[in-house]
Amino acid sequence: MTHPLLDIRNLHLTMTSFDGAAHVLNGIDLTVNRGEIWGLVGESGCGKSLTGLSISRLVSTPPARYIDGEILFEGRDILSLPAKEVQSLRGKRIGMIFQDPTTNLNPSYRIGEQLVDVALAAARHDASILDCPPNASRRERRRAARRLAGDMLDRVGIPNAEARLDNYPHEFSGGMRQRVLIAMALIGRPDLLIADEPTTALDVSVQAQILKLLKGTVADHFIGVILITHNLGVVAETCSHVAVMYAGNIVESGPVAEVIERPAHPYTKALMASIPTKHSKRGSLNGLGGSVPNLISAPPGCRFAPRCPHAVEACTQTLPKPVQVGGTHHAACIRLTETEDLVDA
Amino acid sequence: MLYFILRRILLLIPVVIGLTVIMFAIARLLPGDPVSLAAGPNATQSEIDALAREFGLDQPIWTQYFDYLSGLLHGDLGTSLLTRRPVAADIAAYLPATLELVIAAMLIAVCIGIPLGLATAVWRNRWPDYLSQVVAIGAISMPRFFLGLLLQLCFAMWLMWLPLGGRLPIIVIPPPTVTGFLTIDSLLAGDMHTFVTALRHLAMPAIAMSLSPLATIMRMMRASTIEVMSQDYVTTARALGLPRAKIILKYIARNAVSATLTVIGLYFGWLLGGTVLVETVFDWPGLGLYATKAIISQDMMPVIGVALVIGLMFVAANLVIDLLYGVINPKVRYS
């Protein structure tokens, strides 16, 4: 039996703070296959970045504690692997891109050197990356890594790549730096790419270029991508699938076209309704009332219930299980059939 | 780059003027008459006047000052009232000893303080960190001369591993002077025996002087390392699978050192000015001892000269530090 690329099952994570333990991930289920681009959307603090960091096991424990669940990467549970093996996955099998390109490159080293270091680290687990004989000397390996770094920069669309290897990060623009970071994340030929708000800090025009680049990468290398964002527009444009998160739960997931066209969960509907369109009147924004609940002593029921216009007594009793809406489209709400009518009415 | 250095050298001019003006003012304001002190207890008034005339001390102070400045342009730092030797020659003889001591102390402080600071940051809030914190506070708060005495008691009197003081025993012939540093000169001359002897004499005063900068550098390095460790690019480096040792020793250390450099520069000047006590305790023939003798006999020319040289050294040390910033931080280099 072949395993999916990534299979997160019932992931629970608590964070210890001075006020007590906050239950920030409350049973995450997510399956990513090769060739899929999953958009992970939700408002700030819903746990989408923590989910991404957990996959590379970059959340420091303590203060965090995984109390239940597993993260299966090709069938192996990342949370129970020895640290050495997790490190061999990072960069080599799982690549990551972060939000702010201005702070994610080391200011003191030329970008060529940083790329070479990542390539050499990845080559320790798979020598074929460098495309040089296994008994090659250190110098030869470095030279091969540098050649590869130049190729990667060229591939992510940096003009005059070979020469720019010798530039420092501050000599690049924001968009170019994000390209460098993408090259860095891809240089080890990962199978899974986690992009945590890769375009949030960029201009809209540069955003589009970066997203196109990501999409092209998936097509070329047949890898899986998790794109963490709070921008539904980005998801609609780039992703094949989407998972909507609210306060530590995935409330709705499925193919992007279905979820966006026929949102089932009240939270997704509210998110969709809050996007201004060209038809909406000037000065009228459809925000969602209330705010994210306190996760330290969260009630047992649906975490969206306090803000949900359709909530009933039963909603506050137990956490709703994902219900199939159609195909692979699921939503975690006990009032799906009722709300369907309510919206249509 | 050249422009940067030139600008810094131009900045020396106000430093020199400021230092000399202040020193001249202090010399005039101090009670007592240095000339009669230098002339001796049995000198007559006419002998004292003759001495004052010989050194130009009967002139108004601003004439004395401009005479001094014009002498300075020719590298003349005046003449000692007491010994009648040119101050410049004296300083040239004593400065290398002090520099050797200060540089040795700074080398110890930097070579131990920086790795220790890095290590305590990486293993913070565990027992090596707490231990180093206690030792650091002890080292900073203990006066250097007292520490010197303790070292002498322990290593010279009880254990008898190291000599009590001095730079070289009288019976050892010093190596031919090249740099004025006995350790380097003896190495250049290929004289291993003298080298070891000089090193053994250098060890205790250098350690006594190094402890407080060592502790400060260690704490600074610890603080800046902790700050750098929380930077995004460190997370990125971890996320992309770089080995932990490489992240710490290469990606973190370089950025953390750059914040610590300032302290190193300041301490260098501070040590230069503060060698007096250690030089006295260890009988080290350096600028500190020279200046102390001059101050006691109110011989102002050597005092002004020493202050000037130390001031210039301080500026030079900070220039070197500023240049090092450029080496470590490429952003500084280009702006």
TrEMBL record, chain A:
Positions of the ABC transporter domain:
8-272
* Any one GO CC term of the record: plasma membrane
Q: What GO biological process term is on the record, naming one?
A: peptide transport
Protein topology in the membrane: Peripheral membrane protein
Q: Report the subcellular localization.
A: Cell inner membrane
Q: Per its UniProt record, what SMART domains does this chain match?
A: AAA
UniProt record similarity statement: Belongs to the ABC transporter superfamily.
Q: What is this protein called?
A: Oligopeptide ABC transporter ATP-binding protein
Source organism of this protein record: Roseibium aggregatum (strain ATCC 25650 / DSM 13394 / JCM 20685 / NBRC 16684 / NCIMB 2208 / IAM 12614 / B1) (Stappia aggregata)
Automatic annotation (TrEMBL), chain B:
Which residue ranges run through the membrane? 9-30, 101-123, 135-161, 202-221, 256-282, 302-328
Q: How does it sit in the membrane?
A: Multi-pass membrane protein
> Where is the protein found, in the record's own terms?
Cell membrane
Keywords attached to this entry: Cell membrane, Membrane, Transmembrane, Transmembrane helix, Transport
The superkingdom listed in its UniProt entry is: Bacteria
Major site of localization recorded for this protein: membrane
CDD domains in alphabetical order: TM_PBP2
Q: Name a GO CC annotation attached to this entry.
A: plasma membrane
UniProt GO molecular function: dipeptide transmembrane transporter activity
The residues covered by the ABC transmembrane type-1 domain are 95-325
Q: Which InterPro entries match?
A: BPD_transp_1_N, MetI-like, MetI-like_sf
Family label = Belongs to the binding-protein-dependent transport system permease family.
Protein name as it appears in the record: D-ala-D-ala transporter subunit
